[in-house]
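Exercise (ungraded).
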Amino acid sequence: MALEPNVVVAAAHAAVKAQVSRINDLNVYPVPDGDTGTNMLLTLESTLEETADKTYASPEEASKAVARAALMGARGNSGVILSQMIRGACEVLAGHPSLDAEAAVAGLEGARERAYSSVREPVEGTMLTVIKDSALAAREALDGGDKDLTSVVGKARKAAHTSVRRTPELLAVLREAGVVDAGGLGVAVVLDGLYACVTGQEIEVPDADEGGAPDLEAIHARDEAWGYCTEFLVDGFEGEAAEFEEHIYASGRSVFVVADDEVVKVHLHTQDPGAALSYAGGFGRLAGVKVDDMEAQVRSRDTGTLPSVSFGVVAASRGAGNHDLFERAGAVVVEGGQGENPSAADLARAVEDTGASSVVLLPNNKNIVPTAEQVGELVEVRVHVVPTTSIAAGLAVMVGYDAEGEPDEVVEEMAEILASLRVAEVTRSVRDARVGEREVPEGSYIGFLDGELIAVEETVDRAALVLAGKLANEGADFLTVLKGEDLTDEQLEGVLGGIGDLDADLEVEVRDGGQPLYPLQMVAE
Amino acid sequence: MTTAVVTDSTTSLAPGVLERPDVRMVPLTFHFGSEETYTDKVDMSNAEFYERLRDSDVFPTTAQPAPGTFAEAYEALSDYDDILVLTLSAEFSGTYGSALQAAEMVDRPVHVLDTRSAEMGSGMILLEALRCIDDGGDFDEVRQVTERAIAGANVLFAVGTLEYLARSGRIGRAQRLVGTALDIRPVLKVTGGEVAPFKRTRGRKRQMAAIVDEVRPAVEAGHPLYFGHIAAPELISELAENLGVEEKLVAEIGGVVGSHVGLGAYGVAHL
C-alpha cells in the first residue's frame, strides 16, 4: 500500500478515541499531566488537524509534516512520548516508498529509538516497554521470513497487548494500584489502529482484562506530587542544544526535551517554573506555556474528600442544581430518585462515605423511603431516616442540620421541620387515567399536595397556581420553589407572577434544582 | 461614697445617659480600608455609617480603644470614689483587656466588668447599674446589681442576611449557619458572651414569630424590653405590636456591632 502517514495517524486516532475512557481509568499518577488517554487522544487529534486536507509532494515531506505536527501538539508526559514515537516512525518511513512489512518493522524500531532517547531515565513497565516489545516481535517475524504486512503488524499488536499485561510486573506503582500502565495500553491501542488500517477491518475492542480502576488511595499515599508541571515550546531555537538540554534536565524531574529543526518542546516538573522559563527564553521565543501546581491539585483532591464528621447526611437527589445544593449544605449525594431509584447498597456506600458515626438519610422520594429504612442493617453506622418524599422537602429539612450538634436533637429538629412542611409537586401524566372522579388525560400537568392529586391542568403554571393557591389559603407564609429541568424561565416567571397575585405577602425562594420529571417542586412552611 | 460608670461605644445608651456627669463613654474605632479611620458614634452618625456600609465594597474593620483612652476617662472622673467599667463581651473584642490595662495605669480603684453582651444587652445592664446608683446604693450594691444583670441578661436578635456574620469571623457557634443551601433567617442569641444560633427559621415573618414566642413570657412577667435595630425602625414597631408592648427603649445599633450583624438586623434584650 502507498505510504500515507496521515491515514495511519487517523486510524490510530480512531482507535484511541474508542478506548480513551478505558485508558483514562487506568491513570495512576497524581495530576496534572491529566488523563493519559485524553492526552494521547489530543496529541493525535492536533496532529490530524494540522495535516488534514493537505497534500504533500512526497512521502518524505508528508512524514516530516506529520512528525512536526505531532511534536507541536503533544500534551502531557504520554503525549510527548507518543509524539516522539510518531516522529521516529515518520523519520524512518520517509525513506520507504510504500508501507510494506519491512517498512512497518523499521517504523516501529524508529518509534522505539525516539521514545527511549527522549526520556533521560527510561523506566520499564511503561509505554517504552510496550513499543520495545512490539518492535521486537515484528522484527522476529520479519527475520523469520514473514513478509506479509498484515501478519507482521498483527504480531506486533499482539505483542503490545501481552506487554501491557506485563507492566505491573515491571513497575511497583502499577502493582500496588492493581492496574496496567495507561500509556502502555495507549500504545497497544495505537497499534490496534495501525492494524485496522492495514487490514481495512473494523477495530475490535479487546476485553477489558488488562486491569480495573486504580486504587488512587494507594497511589496518593505513595506517590507524592511535586512542584509545578511545566510545559512550553521554544520556537526558532538558537544556541547550544546540548547545553540547553543539560540545564533543563538538571532543573527538575520527569523531564523531556524534544528538539525538532526549529522547535524544542520541553516538559518538566520543577519547583521553580519561572527559572526554567526565563532560561529557555534566552534560546528563542516561548510558546504554549502551561504551568500547573501539582501539589495544589493534590491538595484540592485531598480536600475534595469530606472532612471527617461525627454526624453526617446522605441525600438521594436528582438534578445538577439539587446535587449542588445538598453538597453545599454538607450532604453526601446519591444520584437517584423518580425513575432511577438507588439501591440500598448505593445508599449504604454513601453512608459509609460520610465517614461519620451517625448519619441522617434523606430519601427525598416515596419509593426510596423503604430502601432507606433497610440501610441501618447494612452498615455499622447509626442511621436515622427522616422520611422526606420530595427533594424540596429534603432541602428544607437540611436547614435543621448541624454537623456538630447532638445527633438525636438534630434529627428531632429535622423531623419537626418535615412535619411542619406541606409538599406540592407538579408532574405530567404518562397515560390516560382516572383518579377518583377525575379524568386525567395523558400529557396533562398534574399537581399533588402531600401526595394527594388536587390539580389536573393543561399547563404547568395553572397546575402550580392551583397548588400555590391552596397553600396560601391555608396560611403558608414561606414557599420554596425548585425549578425542574423541563420548566422554561418564561414558565417560571409566569408561575411566580401568579403566586405574587395570589398573595403578595407570601415570601418565595426559588432555586434551580434541575430535577427531571417534576417541572416544579414546592414546599410551604 | 460615689460611683461613676465608664462604658464603651458599643453600649446602647438611653436618651440623656451620656449627659450625666457620672457616665463616660470610650469609643472604639472602625476603618474602611487602611486609609480611613473613624471614631464610633462620634465621627460618623449611624445614618452615615449605614449608608457607607450599604454602598461600600470595602468591609469595615473595627478596633478596640487604646488603654490610654480608658485611662483618660478614669482620670476625668477623679471626683468619684469608685469607677465601674462595663465593656462589651471579651469574646467579641479586646476592649475589656484595654479597660483592664488602663485600670493599672491610674492610681484609683477601678472595677472592670465584662458585660458578656453588647448594644441593647449592655445598655440594659448599664441602666440597671445607674438605677442602683440613683437609688443611693453603695459600690458593692451597684456591683452586685450589675453582676446579677449580666448573669440574667437575655439578648435575641435577627439578621437580614448571614453575609456580615460570615465575614466578621467573630460569631462563635453561629458560624455553623453559614453555608446552608437555602437562605435561612436565623434567630441568634447572645449567650456566654458569644453569638449562638437559637433557631433556624426561613422567611422574615417566621423569624419574627420565633422571637415573639421566646420573649412573650418575659412580657407577661412584666419585664421591660430593650429594643435595638440597624436602620430598621419599622421592624421594631412590628415586633412591639406583635408582643403587645410599647416601644419605650429603642436604640439604633452602632457601627461596630452593626458591621458584624449587618443592615436590617434587629433584636431585643430583657432580664
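Further reading is listed at the end of the chapter. For now, observe: The radius of gyration of chain A is 30 Å. The first strand of chain A starts at residue 228 and ends at 235.
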